[in-house]
Amino acid sequence: MNMCLYDKQYGYYSSKAIAIGTDGDFFTSPSISADFGELLARQLEEFWQVLGQPKPFTLVEMGAGEGILGKIILDYLQKENNSFYQNIQYLIIEKSNSLKEKQQQIINPEKYPVLWKKWQEIESESIVGCFISNELMDALPIHRIVKHGDELKEIFVTVNDGKLEEIYDNFSSNKIEEYLTMNQVDLTEDSYPNNYQTEVNLLSLEILEKINHKLQRGYILTVDYGYDAHKYYHPQRYEGTLKCYYQHRHHHNPYVNVGCQDITSHVNFTALEKVGEIFGLDKIGFTQQALFLMGLGLGDRLYGLSNDKILLSELWQRRNQLHELINPQGLGGFGILLQGKNLSDREKETPLKGFTHSPFSMAL
Ligand SMILES: C[S@@+](CC[C@H](N)C(=O)[O-])C[C@H]1O[C@@H](n2cnc3c(N)ncnc32)[C@H](O)[C@@H]1O
Asked: What is the average per-residue pLDDT within 210-216?
C-alpha cells in the first residue's frame, strides 16, 4: 500500500495524474463545495475564542490534497472575521511533492499566511492552535491481519512467477499485538471465523504522537470515515475495511490498477482516543459530520436557498451539494474526533457549536 500510494515515481499520490473531485477517482468534502470549509472555519474561530485569542493561532493541516480546504478557510475568514484572520498562521504538512505543487498554485504563499513544513522543521511544543486532517488517516498504509487456524498472521505481498501473490507470516512488529490488546480485541476467540481479515493502522498513532510532540496547547480535529473498535473489529466484518477507488467506483482488489487507484481503510477512532489518553490528550468531543455541520449553520444555508434569487438549476445544484455533505450514508456519516491538549477545565467544558449534538450512531 505504501509503494502503491507513495512510491516517488509510480505512487498514486506522487503522480501528476492524481485529482480529487469530478475529474479524479473520489470526492472529499472540500471538493464538493465551499460549505464544508466555511463552516469548519466557524468552528476554528470558536477554538480561537475559547483559547483567549492567542497570537499567532496556528492551523496545521496535514494531508492537504489539492489545497482547496486551506484556501476556503483562509478566504472565508479574511472576509468574515479579519481580526481572527490577522492572527492566523497556516502550516501544511504534505507527503506528496506533486500535491504540494498543486497546493502552492491554489494557496499563493505571497497572498496568504501559509507555509509548507516537514515535521522535523516544527519545533517541539511550539504550536498553539489546531491540527486538522480530513481523510488523511484513511490514506495511511496499514498492516493486514488474518486469522489462520488458531493463529494470527500478517498478510504480505510477494512476486511469484511475475505475479503478485499474498503470503502469510508472523507479525512484522510487536506493536500490532499491542494495538489489538489496547483495543481489547482478541481475534483468536471463536466468534471470529477462520480467514477473518482486518487492518491495523499503526501510522495513525505515529502521527498522533508527532502532533502531541509539536502541540503546546490547543486542539486536534480528525475528520474521516470509520468506526469505534467494537464495530471495526466486529466478527461479521470478516473482510476488513480495505477499499480501492478508481474513477468513482470502489472495489476490494488492491492488485489491479496499481499506482492508478486510491487504496484506503476505515479509521479506528477508539485507537486514536486511547493513545491520545496515554499522551495526556483529552477527548473533547466526537460527532458525525452531518451533526457537526448542522451545528455550525448548514441548516440555515439550506433554508436560505428558498429565499435566494438564483436560477432553479443553480438552486438544485446548491441543494444537492449541501445534502451530500450531510448524507448519513456518505460524507455526513464521517466521524469527527476532537482532542485537546493543556486546556483548562473551563476551556474543556465550553460548549462548541459543532459538538452540541451527540451522535446516536457511528457511520456504517
Ligand atoms: C485522501 S487525500 C485527502 C486530501 C484532502 N485532505 C481532502 O480532503 O481533499 C490524503 C492526503 O494525505 C496526504 N498524505 C498521506 N500520507 C501523509 C503523511 N504521512 N503526511 C502528510 N500527508 C500525507 C496525501 O498525499 C493526500 O494529500
From this structure: 98
Residue 359 scores a pLDDT above 70 = no
Q: Average pLDDT for residues 119-135, to the nearest whole number? A: 98
Q: CB-side exposure of 212: number of CA atoms within 13 Å?
A: 17
Residues 73 and 184 in one domain: no
Mean pLDDT confidence for 308-325: 90
Long-range contacts of 78-84 (CB under 8 A, 24+ apart): 80/41, 81/45, 84/45, 84/48, 84/53, 84/57
Q: What is the pLDDT of residue 15?
A: 78
Cis ω before 56 (30° cut-off from 0): yes
Is the minimum distance from the CB of 240 to ligand 1 under 6 angstroms? no
Under 8 Å between Cβ of 109 and 90: no
Do 87 and 161 lie in one domain? The reply is no
**Whose C-alpha lies nearest to ligand 1, atom 27?**
65
List, for residues 12-46, the tens digit of each pLDDT value: 998 766 778 877 888 899 999 999 999 999 999 99
**Ligand 1: does its nearest atom lie under 6 Å from the Cβ of 94?**
yes
**C-alpha cell of 68?**
482547496
Domain assignment present for residue 132? The answer is: yes
At residue 363, the pLDDT reads: 42
Q: Cα–Cα distance between 299 and 360 in angstroms, integer?
A: 19
| Ligand 1 neighbourhood includes 28 CB (under 6 angstroms) | yes
Q: Flag whether 361 is in a domain.
A: no
Sheet holding 249-251, edge to edge: 249-251, 243-246, 262-264
Q: Which amino acid is at 42?
A: R
How many helices, marked H, and strands, marked E, lie in the chain?
Answer: 14, 16
With H, G, I as helix, E, B as strand and everything else as coil, classify residue 260: coil
